[in-house]
Automatic annotation (TrEMBL):
Composition bias type Polar residues, residue spans: 11-25
Region ranges (Disordered): 1-109
Compartment(s) where it occurs, according to its Swiss-Prot or TrEMBL record: Cytoplasm
Source organism: Modicella reniformis
Cofactors named for this entry: Co(2+); Zn(2+); Mn(2+); Fe(2+)
Recorded GO CC terms: cytoplasm
Transmembrane segments: none
Protein name per the record: Methionine aminopeptidase 2
Length: 465
């Protein structure tokens, strides 16, 4: 202890130049590492108070002179590094902006492919088959077959989602006083935007039907038609959407007067009955019998008169093939008729029509719906205008149905005689409006289903119907 005190006393009396020399010598090891500096600092804490006092008086000015500049530089560098490091960390920790969910506009303009960014579209209503086909649900082979056709199902589900969004907007916004042309264009413009119309890859499946009252089907206004929707009307809205030729065909009935509620309920119930009865190996005539039984169980009172709701016996549901709205099979809505069976993989439009009239329709009024015959053979055309019109039909519509307004839209003019000629020679089919007796009211509901290997899927089902 005496020796240590003597050393400290000697150290405290070192002259100015010697202190500077020692400071220079100590400076290099200190810069090399902080461990030695840290140890030295710990030793200083154990020094007697008197020695610390002496050192602080004598050495402090010398150390400031010798080491002050270098320490300041080191502090500046350390501070700058610390600031840069903190800034870098701050940048790294900056929270990522969450992707905002795309929602549909009003009116609908955003394609469903933008709303469903992963391009996987929602399933419709999944229904089990009846008891004799329940084994399909868990059968591994059938499940494998279903996975193999996922892309096909995804295409038609995309079309179904377009249909749901467009029709829900239409149901909210169609009001009495609107012209029928405005109603159709509202639906068709929404469909084109949401499905991203692109030639035969995607687009409208067939013209928008808006048949009124005793007219049950196949009416859409031609250019110049000034018909307006009235409060007391019963309006059938029937429109289609396709993706890669896979067509969604779905319809609903719109009314404003609650007097027609039972008429609508009868037809909706009948359509759901047809969907419930449909399945693989089910006979078409059995579906028709079930539909008729349900529909005829309803009555509707209009202006003090009671009517039994009758199924329109010469209107049917139908199978749907790629780019062909009416396939080879018909689904009756009355008993009797075709005993053909439904088969695995087929698409069907289950649609029913109810009427307060005779329950039988005939052709009337000006024709608006047309379609090129699906498997027509080559037919020589003598009228040059008919040839150019046929080229337009092949280019724009192919075998998908179209109407006169669509020809106007693509720039065709003075085509009526040419169109009539194409109908006469059998290249194009005309579909005039179908009407029951005047003064009667008709209603329609329709869904598209697919008979998958494991389940039945009601593709066009929505919250509305």
């Amino acid at each position: 202890m005496e020796i240590l005190s003597a050393d400290l006393r000697n150290k405290s009396t070192i002259s100015q130049p010697e202190a500077q020399d020692q400071g220079d010598q100590v400076e290099q090891p200190a810069a090399a590492g902080t461990t030695a500096g840290g140890a030295k600092k710990n030793k200083k804490k154990k020094k007697p108070a008197a020695a610390i006092e002496t050192e602080s008086k004598d050495d402090k000015p010398n150390r400031d002179d010798a080491e002050g500049d270098d320490d300041d530089d080191d502090d500046d560098e350390d501070g700058a590094n610390a600031t840069d490091s903190a800034a870098a960390k701050k940048k790294k920790k900056k929270p990522k902006k969450k992707k905002t969910k795309v929602t549909q506009t009003e009116p609908p303009t955003i394609p469903v492919s933008k709303i469903f960014g992963n391009k996987i579209y929602p399933e419709g209503e999944i229904c089990d088959y009846k008891e004799d086909n329940l084994w399909r649900t868990t059968n591994e082979e059938k499940r494998y077959l279903e996975r193999q056709t996922f892309d096909q199902y995804n295409d038609v589900r995309r079309a179904a989602e377009v249909h749901r969004q467009v029709r829900q907007y239409a149901r909210r916004n169609i009001k009495p006083g609107m012209s029928m042309i405005d109603i159709c264009e509202m639906i068709e413009n929404g469909t084109r935007a949401l499905v991203e119309t692109n030639g035969f890859e995607s687009g409208i499946g067939f013209p928008t039907g808006c048949s009124l009252n005793h007219c049950a089907a196949h009416y859409t206004p031609n250019t110049g038609d000034k018909t307006e929707l009235q409060y007391g009307d019963v309006c059938k809205i029937d429109f289609g959407v396709h993706v890669n030729g896979r067509i969604i065909d779905s319809a609903f009935t719109l009314t404003f007067d609650p007097v027609y509620d039972n008429l609508l309920a009868a037809v909706k119930d009948a359509t759901n009955t047809g969907i419930r009865e449909a399945g693989i190996d089910v006979r078409l005539c059995d579906i028709g019998a079930a539909i008729q039984e349900v529909m005829e169980s309803y009555e509707v009172e209009i202006e003090g008169k009671t009517y039994q709701v009758k199924p329109i016996r010469n209107l049917n549901g139908h199978s749907i093939d790629p780019y062909k709205i009416h396939g080879g099979k018909s689904v009756p809505i009355v008993k009797g008729g075709d005993q053909t069976k439904m088969e695995e993989g087929e698409y069907f439009a289950i649609e029913t029509f109810g009427s307060t009239g005779r329950g039988y329709v005939h052709e009337d009024m000006e024709t608006s719906h047309y379609a090129r015959v699906y498997d027509v053979q080559h037919v020589p055309l003598r009228i040059p205008r008919a040839k150019t019109l046929l080229n337009t039909i092949n280019k724009e519509f192919g075998t998908l149905p179209f109407c006169r307004r669509y020809l106007d839209r693509v720039g065709e003019q003075k085509y009526v005689l040419a169109l009539r000629n194409l109908v006469e020679v059998g290249i194009v089919d005309a579909y005039p409006p179908l009407v029951d007796i005047k003064g009667s009211f008709t209603a329609q509901y329709e869904h598209t289903i697919v008979l998958k290997p494991t389940h039945k899927e009601v593709l066009s089902r929505g919250d509305d119907y």
